[in-house]
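ingest -> validate -> predict -> emit
validate: passed (alphabet ok, no gaps, 190 aa)
predict: started
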Amino acid sequence: MFLVSKSLIVRSESREQVLKTNLKTILILIISIVMISLFLFSNFFFKSTYLLKSFGELSVDPKIAFTNNKPTFLEFYAEWCEVCKEIAPQISAFKDEYEKDINFVFLNVDNQKWANYIQKFSVNGIPQVNLFDKKGNLMSTFVGKQDEKIIKESINNLEKEEKPFEKIIHTEFSTIKENKNNEISPRSHG
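emit:
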């Protein structure tokens, strides 16, 4: 009887060992698949964030844009803005298509350097796109996520100076966070 129960214990321990080994193998396999997927699809997952970060580098200086006799596409954005990230590929496509004929200016609302433009154009929600004709007249303002066709039509109409100003606000936008980086406050000693 002792031999039978000892044999059962050994079998039970060997089954546990096999299960633990299989579980470790499966876990390693799952982790490997996730890591490989992240590596292979990292461009897809992080493309919008990368595009937003590159917008500032790709931007025409606003002072030049408003004086070089070309229409101007001005976007106010922030890297933390989810709607901005969502539309970044669409905006990048517009830039690729029209950059020879139109100035593309991208201003990050978190950069204090652009505070005067944020105030001048009453930016309360982002993304905000302002379209100007070649004389610097504001033709259209879009706040929030917009249909690609509407923006494209407005870009194509920039040459027609007779079109009146139009402001379109969509419900999907981010409110601007107050930037407290430059505020000075006394220390509290409790």
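The chain has two domains: 1-40, 46-175.
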